[in-house]
Write a structure and sequence with these properties.
The complex is a heterodimer of chains A (about 160) and B (about 650).
Chain A: H1 3-31, E1 33-37, H2 39-45, E2 53-59, E3 65-68, E4 71-77, E5 82-88, E6 100-107, E7 113-118, H3 129-137
Parallel strand pairs in A: 1-2, 5-7
Antiparallel strand pairs in A: 2-4, 2-6, 3-4, 4-5, 6-7
Chain B: H1 2-30, H2 33-36, H3 39-62, H4 69-74, H5 81-86, H6 92-113, H7 119-143, H8 167-196, H9 201-232, H10 243-268, H11 272-295, H12 308-332, H13 347-379, E1 383-385, H14 387-404, H15 418-423, H16 426-442, H17 450-471, H18 479-488, H19 491-516, E2 518-524, E3 529-532, E4 535-546, E5 551-561, E6 564-569, E7 572-576, E8 581-585, E9 587-590, E10 594-603, E11 609-617, H20 619-638, H21 649-654
Antiparallel strand pairs in B: 2-11, 3-4, 4-5, 5-6, 5-7, 7-8, 9-10, 10-11
Helix pairs in contact in B: 1-3, 1-7, 3-6, 6-7, 6-8, 7-8, 7-12, 8-9, 8-10, 8-11, 9-10, 9-20, 10-11, 10-13, 11-12, 13-14, 16-17, 17-19, 19-20
Classes of the chains: A alpha+beta (about 160), B alpha+beta (about 650).
Chain lengths: ~160, ~650
């Protein structure tokens, strides 16, 4: 093999792998992106049944209901609009009424939101940035430390 | 008093590292041996000061000195001792102190064991390493002082997040940091080489042990983290493609690429400039990981409350080091003498393809992790890139890589015969095919692609075994002759086989859990039973138990299989009074091949308890495989040719290179 052929082989292999990677990413970007909605977004923009979304907000006080057979129902609210969520499974330890939550799932044909995943947080002071942002947009932001037992230490709970 | 001394030592360490940044660098520039010699004692002094400072903070945690704000925030007098100690790095300030401690440790190791390095290179490496220390020490001293006092001192602390009160997690950060920060060493070597304008085979040999050390620590750190997530978070998953996990995976993949490209740079003098770039990238990705974790810019299941202001300081550090080193690279790399272009079918060709694929995999994780951030900044749209994205991008690239991994070690340097290499892998290919058929038969009706994944896993393991068998001429020579050859085989060859085989074992575990695990969610009253994976779970009752700093609801679940009693599992729901938090504690019954995993949920209104159970086939193999990979790293590190501070340049040139 001459020098030129070798160089051509390398360029071909490199471009091939680059093309493969780019192609895969573009393909995966097409339908594996999950958009975040606040309850207001859901009402304003509407969501197709079956489309996977992340729905985030605060768990409405007093809305958690046990439907039996490990199925639970609660409301996610941004104090402007509220969406009822059904979830079958064990809630994460830091799930609390009145605190931030992000659920992932889809609306059914009947308009009910079924979550397949309720995101667990490692830290009770943590507010998902999207939820904080959604609350700011709906004008209901009161700062995060409010519900935390030792709010004065808020912002120091970082951990790898 | 000791606490103030610790604070003072930290500030002294900052002063020392400033000296260590400038004096040896100026010495190297002027070829002044006197100035260059300042580097080593400075590096050792810096380590001693930071170690003292770290010790002082640890002492405050051990004796529960609640007048220190950090101890008050993250400790409690009732906490078991091990978690008092792990609480030192279970928070932002302490973990940054651990970070600089490990940084100084690596610097001091170069000072102690790098006697054979050329004087100017050593001086410059120590200077670059110290400049990183300056940045992070400034960060700790001015924005994250771990020694701040409270007045008046509280009587009791507020405790540590219960999720962090865990034995595996206690040691996860030190390993992970040893990996992250370990890449600072290769970074320093790369930058020093760029300043020198010279990269040769000996440079590649000196940098390899540090790469190995960082890589194997990171492997252990990631494996521990994933194991912890598996048994503590209660969802039965081992990897979530979460930004924080990805942040640790990216330097790992880049580091794996660096390990392989450094071999080419050492043996063939090629890919030098690429190796330098990888060394810079691996550490840049480590810094990026620190930034992502500290700043909380991404929604993550692993996220903790964080302070954006501190995040921006780390972003500044990140931009300075990444931008600076890449600018230096753009300026100096063209001056490096390049090796010739080599034959495509050869060991170096295979290693290059390995590097291209690993780089593509890193890019896919990078884009999947950061794309939401860019989109948010540009359009304000909030999106999440979930596991499916990575399954479609990262997985196919790795499948290609897995196909080629066993082939590589059979190819000779310079030019190789691919047919001869393939011939030596007939047995491995046969076994892989057998695995394909067996898993199709065994898991009939399961996911279609899983048996192919299983075949790939067997291909990797059998390929690694074939390599050893070929090297020691097993079955083509008398057995004792083969054994003698096995003893003479370089440790690095064992390391390669172990790492590649471990990868296959890990893959088998990943396939098993992803494709063939069963999940059960049910609610049962005491006395009722549920079935999963051939096991019968009977909730006998729920009792209360007192722990050292919590009380727990304990579910007593009797496990039986085919009518045979297998004992009880006791999943718990713990309530930590001091922290005012709850934590579920899954119970796992493992036989080394599959796990039965039981979580106790809430009590429902009708008096029944929610029970969640998983039967995870092959789950333990994930971490067994990870440990074997790390062990491979240890073996390579013990190789005579690579020993830290081993052969001097002159002796190496004289020593005959083993035929490969």
């Amino acid at each position: 093999m001459t020098r030129k052929q070798r160089r051509a082989t390398f360029i071909a292999v490199s471009l091939g792998i680059l093309g493969l990677a780019v192609g895969l990413m573009l393909f995966a970007m097409r339908d594996n992106i999950v958009f975040f909605y606040s309850p207001s977004d859901v009402v304003e923009r509407g969501v197709e049944p079956g489309q996977r979304i992340r729905l985030g907000g605060l768990v409405e006080q007093g809305s958690l209901e046990d439907l039996g057979d490990a199925t639970l129902r609660f409301n996610v609210t941004d104090f402007v609009e509220t969406v009822t969520v059904t979830y079958r499974g064990v809630l994460p330890d830091l799930f609390r009424e009145g605190q931030g939550v992000v659920t992932e799932g889809a609306f059914g044909e009947d308009g009910n939101f079924t979550a397949t995943n309720v995101l667990a947080k490692h830290d009770e002071f943590y507010m998902p940035p999207e939820v904080a942002d959604a609350l700011k947009r709906s004008g209901q932001w009161q700062g995060e430390g409010a519900a935390a037992p030792h709010a004065e230490t808020y912002g120091q709970g970082a951990y790898p | 008093m000791i606490v103030e001394l610790g604070h003072f030592a930290l500030i002294l360490a900052l002063a020392v590292s400033i000296v260590q940044t400038f004096v040896p660098a100026i010495g190297a520039h002027r070829r002044d041996a006197q100035l260059m010699r300042v580097g080593e004692p400075a590096a050792i002094l810096q380590l001693a000061l930071i170690a003292f400072s770290f010790g002082a903070l640890t002492w405050a945690f051990v004796v529960s000195d609640f007048s220190v704000k950090l101890v008050y925030d993250y400790s409690h007098s009732l906490k078991p001792m091990i978690f008092k100690i792990s609480g030192v790095w279970g928070n932002h300030e302490g973990s940054m102190l651990l970070w600089v401690l490990i940084l100084a440790l690596f610097g001091a190791m170069v000072a102690l064991f790098g006697k054979n390095l050329p004087d100017t290179l050593r001086a410059r490496v120590l200077a670059v390493q110290a400049s990183i220390a300056v940045a992070f020490l400034l960060f700790v001293v001015f924005t994250s002082n771990p020694f701040a006092r409270l007045d008046p001192a509280p009587f009791e602390g507020t405790g540590l997040n219960p999720l962090l009160q865990d034995r595996a997690l206690a040691f996860h950060p030190p390993w992970l940091y040893a990996g992250y920060v370990g890449f600072s060493m290769t970074f320093s070597f790369a930058v020093a080489a760029l300043i020198e304008g010279r990269v040769d085979a000996s440079w590649a040999r000196w940098v390899r042990p540090w790469t190995l050390m960082a890589w194997l620590s990171l492997t252990i750190g990631i494996a521990m983290g994933s194991w912890w997530a598996y048994y503590t978070l209660g969802w039965g998953g081992f990897w979530f493609w979460d930004p924080v996990e990805n942040a640790s995976l990216m330097p790992w993949i880049a580091g794996t690429a660096l390990l392989h490209s450094a071999i080419v740079a050492e043996k063939r003098g090629a890919l030098k400039s690429w190796t330098i770039l990888l060394a810079i990238l691996a550490f840049s990705l480590s810094l990026l990981g620190t930034f992502l974790v500290r700043s909380g810019v991404l929604t993550s299941v692993h996220a903790f409350a964080v302070d954006p202001a501190r995040g921006s300081v780390i972003l500044g550090i990140l931009i300075f080091f990444v931008g600076g080193s890449l600018a230096l690279y753009a300026w100096r790399a063209p001056m490096l003498k390049t090796g010739g272009i080599f034959a495509p079918v050869s060991r170096e060709g295979a290693l290059l393809v390995n590097n291209l694929l690993l780089a593509a995999a890193t890019a896919s994780v990078f884009i999947g992790t950061l794309y939401p951030l860019f989109l948010d900044a540009l359009t304000g749209a909030k999106i999440t890139v979930g596991p499916p994205f990575f399954n479609y991008t990262f997985a196919p690239i790795f499948v290609l890589l897995f196909l080629l991994v066993p082939l590589g070690p059979f190819l000779g340097w310079k030019r190789a015969d691919i047919a001869a290499a393939a011939e030596r892998l007939y047995v491995a290919a046969g076994l892989a095919f057998l695995a394909l058929l067996t898993s199709f038969a065994f898991f009939y009706g399961g996911p279609f692609l899983a048996p192919f994944g299983m075949a790939l896993a067997v291909w990797l393991v059998a390929g690694a075994l074939s390599e050893i068998a070929w090297r020691i001429k097993l079955f083509s020579m008398p057995l004792d002759e083969s054994m003698a050859r096995a003893r003479r085989l370089p440790r690095a060859a064992w390391g390669t086989a172990l790492a590649h085989g471990g990868l296959g074992i890990c893959l088998a575990g990943v396939i098993g859990v992803t494709a063939w695990s069963e999940e059960l969610i049910t609610s049962v009253a005491p006395g009722e039973s549920a079935e999963i994976g051939g096991y019968t779970l009977t909730l006998e009752g729920v009792a209360l138990r007192d722990g050292p700093n919590f009380d727990a609801m304990v579910g007593v679940v009797r496990v039986a299989r085919d009518g045979r009693d297998l004992g009880v599992l006791t999943p718990e729901k713990r309530r930590f009074a001091a922290e005012r938090q709850e934590k579920t504690e899954p119970a796992i019954r493992t036989n080394g091949i599959s796990d039965l995993y039981v979580v106790l949920g809430e009590q429902a209104g009708d008096g029944k308890w929610v029970l969640r159970a998983y039967h995870n086939n092959l789950a333990p193999l994930i971490w067994i495989g990870g440990c074997i990979m790390a062990l491979g790293g240890v073996f390579s590190l013990m190789d005579r040719r690579l020993r830290v501070g081993a052969p001097t340049g002159a002796r190496v040139r004289l020593a005959p290179q083993p035929a490969e």
